[in-house]
Amino acid sequence: MTTTDWILDVALILVVLRQIRWSRIDALFLVVPIGITSFVAYKYLDPIPTGGNDLLLIGAFAAVGIVLGVTGGLTMHVRVRQGKAFVRAGFTAASLWVLSMGARLAFIIWSEHTGGPTIARFSEQHHITSTQAWVSGLILMVLCEVVTRLGTVLIRVTAAKSQVATSTPGGTEASARSLADVR
Question: pTM of the full predicted structure?
Answer without folding.
Answer: 0.84
